[in-house]
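Entry for the shared binder. Reason: the reviewer on the internal report wants the predicted structure included alongside the sequence.
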Amino acid sequence: FITALRALMDFRYAGQAPRFNQTSTLRVQTALNEFHENKDIIQDLKARVNPKGVPIVHWEIPKLEFMQSVAPSISASGPIMQWTADTTEHAHITLVKDPARSGNNHDFEVQICRHLDRQSRVRRFDLVTAMVDAGVDFRLDDIEGDEGRGDIGHDREERDEEDEEVDTKISSSEELMTRLHPVSQKLFGSFRPKQNFFLKARLLKQDASALLPLRIFTDNVSGEISAFKVNRDPDLKTLTIEQLSDLYSLPDFSGACLDFLERIQAKTQTFVIGGRQSLNQSISLPFIRVKVWSRIRIQTKTYFNTDILADSHTIFAAPPSPGWEFGRQNAAVVNINSSFEWPRSSLEGHCVVLVKIIFTVAQPRKPSPPMDDTHRFLAYCERLDVVNQPPPPLEYRSLPGYNAWPSHFPDYSSGCFVLKRARRVDGTPFGDIMPVSQFRSLVDICPRYRSAPHASLTRSSSQYHSHEFFLNKYFNKELFFTLDKVDPCLTSTAK
């Protein structure tokens, strides 16, 4: 039953790829064939019923029949997502319906055209005034033919000397958008345009007055894999190590800090969650207070086009509260081997963790210098190990999802990797501290129950009381493409 539903999910997700080749097209058709091979169990369990609850004993569904033409259509005319009606439907709202509602129900065509014309003029005026306010100047100095401009260059020098302002040099449209603050919220076509954390991080590095550690920063490898943003002020200011340990119920937090400092002294570049826990508790930490954030936003690039920004997501690491008795912690993928680059490498060279705390070390007051390699955002995480599952049937073993991570197979029925809490010899969860810059993506985990779950479990307690989880690859399309290791179609044979 689960296999049939999972095959349909694979078909829907794999069919939404922006590029295809023969391998990825065959993947779509194979998922549909797998559904037809396992669909009889749905009727055997009488799971398909009509609105009156009467079982339906046939599969005469037009949409199910239309699915047979998806793979041939991809081979004949390319990705099916290019034919989506979402774009034209949205354009019909913004270019026809909204202007029509602003009129008096007479001469619709004339009033719609007049409305769009005035709207365009407002946007252009707003763009120009916003550029002037930002100090943006596209005029070039010392260009051929500039001799005939009279005293324009001289007037410009006088203006700069009077205002004591330096024109901003812009090299790209996205950089221009980050510097403008227009009056019209829909200047760039959306009330909430997608933020570019990567660009903001580069600009913030050039700001000598920015708070340290930087509130917007990038990954620790190339600076082009993942970017992060936190609030300016921490949610919990200057807690002692003991107070933080008690608040989050983490008695080994002090030992994890000692281990982290030892790895810094050993010049460790990429941190992992493993190894011994520091036993010499008599050694005092060089710091006694930390600042804590309960959330952080992360942004990555898309799987097929690494130049295109993906949507940002929030990773929570909140302490216990009335609605979350054990705290609210999300799972994330972290890099533990810098030679593997997310997302094209899938889970190879990475691991899944539960993010328990996001913090920075409270640095000594000036003029004392900050402590070495601690002036950055850190996270206390608990490791989740991948439990290898039996291989799938031979006819499906060649699919990319079963070869995404060599010698590691996901669960065949659900198609998801199985995770298990890593524990020490004494049974406590395996936790450690690592830089936030090693985070790569937010992921969703679902508790795995081998029998009926207890009735007392809730959304806030099920994760805390569970020991095994499914790594939900259907969390979003980008994560599906990554965990299924879909062919990115970088060759000229892609359609």
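Summary line for the report: The CA atoms of residues 423 and 429 lie 4 Å apart.
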